[in-house]
Specification:
By secondary structure, this protein is of the alpha/beta class. The protein contains five helices and nine strands. The two termini are 28 Å apart.
Length: 172
């Protein structure tokens, strides 16, 4: 397991933005830095010594009708069902598209592998995977591939104001 250390003032601006957002929300836990990058849910779970499903991964899509970012916060052991998400967030007859690294960085202010569910550069449309509620505590990225923070699924729902939905493919 990687060592967890509290973030310090010399961390990136993105991590500081998440830290400030968490503090403003009265969240009890500041982001911590992992020794190794956790660009994937599996890497994060391994580093933290938790179940893969406890990783709240942030997946960004592009809503084609207005070029707005769509954030799906899903359980690390699940795959997002793009058609389910599209049905929930796109006007009739419009599509959801994939977001490339440039789009993700421009809309969120974060690089892929460190996208936080909070403190985006531009407010996204947000959906929360109901599968996260299988766990008492989950871990989310905090603006950098080395930075994470713990929270409950209920806190995630409250902090984002997002609806909880069935957004994943059936588990194998």
């Amino acid at each position: 397991m990687s060592t967890l250390t509290p973030t310090n003032p010399s961390t990136t601006a993105a991590v500081q933005r998440v830290t400030d957002a968490l503090a403003a929300l009265g969240h009890a836990h500041a982001p911590v830095m992992l020794d190794d990058a956790a660009r994937t849910a599996q890497q994060a779970a391994d580093a933290l010594g938790v179940a893969l499903g406890q990783i709240a991964k942030s997946i960004i899509f592009r809503r084609k009708s207005d070029d707005r970012s769509v954030l799906v916060v899903t359980s690390g052991d699940r795959r997002v069902d793009e058609k389910k998400v599209q049905a929930l967030v796109c006007p009739e007859g419009t599509k959801l598209g994939r977001a490339d690294a440039d789009f993700v960085k421009a809309r969120t202010g974060f690089s892929i592998g460190g996208v936080s569910p909070l403190a985006h550069a531009e407010p996204p449309v947000v959906l929360i995977d109901r599968e996260l509620f299988r766990f008492d505590r989950v871990w989310a990225a905090a603006g950098h591939p080395h930075a994470v923070f713990p929270l409950t699924p209920q806190e995630l729902e409250r902090y984002t104001g997002a609806p909880v939905a069935d957004v994943t493919q059936e588990a194998a």
